[in-house]
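Subject: Sanity check before I submit

Could someone independently write out the structure tokens for this chain? I want to compare against mine line by line before I put it in a report. The sequence has 102 residues.
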Amino acid sequence: MAAIDVLKSAGVESVAVCLLHSYANPIHEKRLGELLRQHFPEAYVSLSHEIPREFREYERTSTTVLNSYVGPIVSGYLVSLERMLGDAGSAGHSASCNPTAE
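---
Independent answer below. Compare away.
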């Protein structure tokens, strides 16, 4: 939990988790995701095994990092858009773009 506290105190908004062989066995990456979501729920969390099930480390990591970078921006945009549409009388709802949201 000390590492999560360091991320919080540093003002981190999103976290990309990319473990070497998580495409084949994501158990450790899933556990890190659970811990982050439990102890740092305000952070946007991207887990590499949830993005592209790719065995090539560079492609999987770069895609996960990119998702972690744009995810909070797109999520904020969708929340704002949903609010504007609601104010205009629309009853529709947008789906969360965060793959980790439940």
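---
OP: Matches mine. For the report I'm noting this point. The mean pLDDT is 88.
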